[in-house]
Specification:
The complex is a heterodimer of chains A (93) and B (534). By secondary structure, chain A is of the alpha/beta class. Chain A is built from 3 helices and 5 strands; from the N terminus they run ββαβαβαβ. Chain A starts with a strand and ends with a strand. In chain B, strands 6-7-18-15-12-13 form a 6-stranded antiparallel beta sheet. Chain B has a 5-stranded parallel beta sheet with strand order 2-1-3-4-5, with helices on both faces. The termini of chain B are far apart.
């Protein structure tokens, strides 16, 4: 997995699966969210570890505006099933 | 609203013009009048004020630095609720057209006579009164909607709490049990229940309040609530009796029916060891069994329940089966392909269905949205022959899990197809983290607080293990993980997204990524089924 941060945009390539992947992604999102908003682009992954979802929900509760673009249809459906589409402002790429 | 309460501003570089205007306003009854001799002072003021701090702004057209048109434009951009009146000595139609484009409400000419001014002000006051009334009404509507949303969310939470689904997503011996619940509206007319009576005997029920709305939902929820409470009490005293339960539930349900109301419900006692089923079905769709690719239909043995229902029958069915399907009509009566109900397709396709996820996927491949609430309970005797292709005992430390998952992916790539490898690796990581949190860090019900407060839980050096097995048959790959913890209540975890803000979604993700997710009774062992594509 590879994470790139440019300003408030976090872009993720590859599949997010291990503890290190989750930790790296959470740290990148927290850094990018300093300005009060963060936009996450997930290019390949078909899933999002529950720890990352938990941290995103916490950031949202702390007033951070979150938007997300996902390419994989399974991930989009998963976020839909978890009622997170509007919370994370998720759009298909 | 009284005239004296309206907040008026005059922006005019001519003091004489202001004095004339304010005198007329005061003589009509306006008291709250503020004056700005320079447009930029008013621009500064606009940046600081809140909504409805100004009701009407009189703006002179000819002013230095910023003319009245530009000021009007800025007012409508910054505080569109302010009503504006342009004071002009010009009859230039283009200026007036531009002012209208910027949302001006009225024009007055310099030197306007008092009766005409008074008439124009009456119109503005009436408009302002209407504005405040609409706003109040809007606020009241918002509060009603907010209250309704909160009540509906609470109602769903209550319904989910009442539904006892303690056996679905479980495996025992060679059996797996599944359920699927998809309400069409917030207040569902469907409820269901699955409870384990003993090691191999189960009680299952689906209740469908016919019609829509609160009344149908209440009948359905109350009936299931009554059943669940009765069963739990009888199990406490080791005194479960299916016939007595049916009798009590029948009488209870008739006692809560309205005149024109009806309730369809089925109650089954299923013994997976002897294959005996005690069967009571009041108007729900038939129960379907399969045995060696043969479909066996068990028709409802009673009509739907109404207030005057007096009699009912219970059948005892002695029929070996490989699968059992109990469903509300949302599954079978939803329509596909220009008018065919889904049960037509189900009867054609049933041989292809093995797990409940196969039926659900097939249903949604031909139907976008069910016509009604869907409640399904499904049993499958998994007779596939599996061979173990991987097993490992894993020491639960964070570093060890990280190392193992990376190494495991490499090993698995040679054994099974890539698409399943990716899912298994993701699932295994989620599962091992859960094992680590539950068995080593002892995090369970307190997880929400820990995330909320960003607390760090230190590893206490305790050695705990997880046991991993991967099995394969010609149809499935199974990921089997067991830990040394105390397990957990699977049914509560599956409901937890309604109750926990920051966690509890991992299990639902595993359910979504796999084709079947089943725990043991204790909740410390999971089997995830992945269907092979070839």
């Amino acid at each position: 997995m590879e994470v790139r941060v440019v300003g408030s945009i976090v872009e993720v390539d590859g599949i997010i699966k291990t503890i290190n992947d989750s930790q790296m992604l959470v740290n990148a999102i927290k850094d990018a969210a300093n300005s009060g908003n963060v936009s996450i682009k997930i290019n390949d992954s078909f899933s999002l570890p529950s720890t990352v979802i938990g941290e995103l929900l916490k950031l949202k509760d702390n007033g951070v505006s979150i938007s997300m673009e996902v390419k994989d249809e399974i991930l989009y459906e998963l976020l839909d099933d978890l009622n997170l589409i509007s919370a994370f402002n998720v759009k298909r790429m | 609203m009284n005239k004296e309460d309206l907040k008026i501003v005059i922006v005019d570089d001519s003091k004489a013009s202001y004095v004339m205007l304010s005198t007329m306003l005061k003589s009509i009854g306006f008291k709250n009048i503020k004056y700005f001799s320079h447009p930029l002072d008013f621009v500064d003021k606009l940046k600081k004020i809140k909504e409805d701090e100004i009701d009407i702004a009189f703006v002179d057209y000819e002013m230095p630095i910023m003319n009245g048109l530009r000021l009007l434009h800025y007012i409508k951009f910054k505080r569109p609720e302010i009503m504006t009146v342009m004071i002009t000595g010009s009859s230039d139609i283009k200026i007036k057209e531009k002012a209208i484009e910027y949302g001006v409400n009225e024009f007055i000419n310099k030197g306007i006579d008092f009766p005409e001014f008074k008439a124009k002000m009456n119109i503005l006051v009436n408009l302002r009164e209407y504005y405040y009334k609409s706003k109040k009404h809007q606020k009241e509507l918002e509060n009603i909607v907010k209250y309704k949303d909160t009540q509906e969310t609470l109602a769903v939470q209550k319904q989910l709490k009442i539904i006892e689904d303690t056996t679905s997503h479980h495996f025992f011996d060679s059996w797996v049990i599944d359920s699927y619940f998809k309400p069409k509206d917030i207040l569902s007319g469907d409820s269901y229940s699955t409870l384990r009576i003993n090691d191999h005997t189960f009680f299952i029920s689906v209740v469908d309040g016919m019609g829509k709305g609160v009344s149908a939902s209440l009948s359905s929820v109350l009936t299931v609530s009554f059943m669940n409470y009765s069963i739990k009490r009888s199990l406490q005293f080791n005194d479960f009796n299916f016939k007595r339960l049916v009798k009590d539930t029948f009488h209870y349900a008739t006692s809560i029916m309205l005149d024109d109301e009806a309730l369809s419900f089925a109650m089954l006692e299923v013994d997976t060891k002897t294959h005996k089923i005690k069967y009571f079905n009041m108007g729900l769709p038939p129960v379907y069994l399969t045995k060696n690719d043969k479909l066996i239909k068990i028709k409802p043995n009673n009509r739907p329940l109404i207030q005057n229902s007096k009699e009912y029958i219970i059948d005892e069915i002695d029929e070996e089966f490989d699968s059992l399907l109990l469903s509300s009509d949302g599954l079978f009566e939803s329509v596909y392909n220009d008018g065919y109900p889904y049960f037509i397709r189900f009867k054609q396709q049933y041989k292809k269905f093995y797990l409940l996820s196969d039926i659900i996927k097939d249903f949604y491949s031909v139907i976008d949205e069910a016509d009604d609430d869907m409640s399904i309970v499904y049993f499958r005797n998994d007779k596939n022959k599996y061979q173990t292709i991987f097993n490992q005992k894993i020491l639960l430390t964070q570093q060890n899990i990280e190392d193992f998952v990376n190494h495991f992916e490499f090993e698995l790539n040679n054994l099974i197809e890539l698409k399943i490898v990716n899912k298994i690796v993701f699932a295994l990581n989620e599962l091992l983290i859960n094992c680590y949190e539950h068995t080593v860090l002892k995090i369970s019900k307190n997880k929400h607080k820990i995330i909320q407060k960003d607390e760090k839980i230190e590893y206490n050096g305790e050695n705990k293990f997880a046991y991993l097995n991967i099995y394969e048959s010609d149809k499935f790959v199974i990921l089997d993980v067991e830990d040394e913890g105390d397990g957990f209540d699977v049914s509560q975890i599956l409901k937890s997204e309604w109750f926990n803000k920051y966690h509890g979604r991992g299990v639902k993700m595993l359910k979504k990524l796999s084709d079947g997710m089943y725990y043991n009774k204790k909740g410390n062992q999971i089997k995830l089924y992945f269907k092979k594509e070839k």
